[in-house]
Amino acid sequence: MSYNSSAVINITNNTGGNAIITLAHRYCDDIPQVNSVKMGLEATAEILTANFNSGFLISGMNCWWIGIQVLNGPNAGHYTIEGSSENPVVENLLESDDKRTSINFTVNTEAFTMNSFAGSVSTEVISVSDAISMDNFFAAA
Fold it and tell me: What range does the domain containing 60 cover?
């Protein structure tokens, strides 16, 4: 697929610990773009460049998914939102004003917030399993 627009997506980790964050983006019915980053607490990092089309009669919907593995701290565990990396379903529109910009998303263990010129969308993050906190693991050893 050929695209006429892209935006750099940054993610801020507000989960309470170091984390591996995976973000998926799908434009229309295209194959999702997926990337993961390992991040420190309260760090912000570039996670992917989202490709999309913008303009009169050629724009389409952008769908997102996030998976988080909090590695340590009080919220250690696995978290996600509706959908999957193969099937992102949470919608947040990217439009012409987003072209060639850096857009900041944030995540904690309760909400994933996506910002764009079209507006801000926040969706609930759910815990899917508990992980062994590395802090607790080493303290018990």
Answer: 5-140
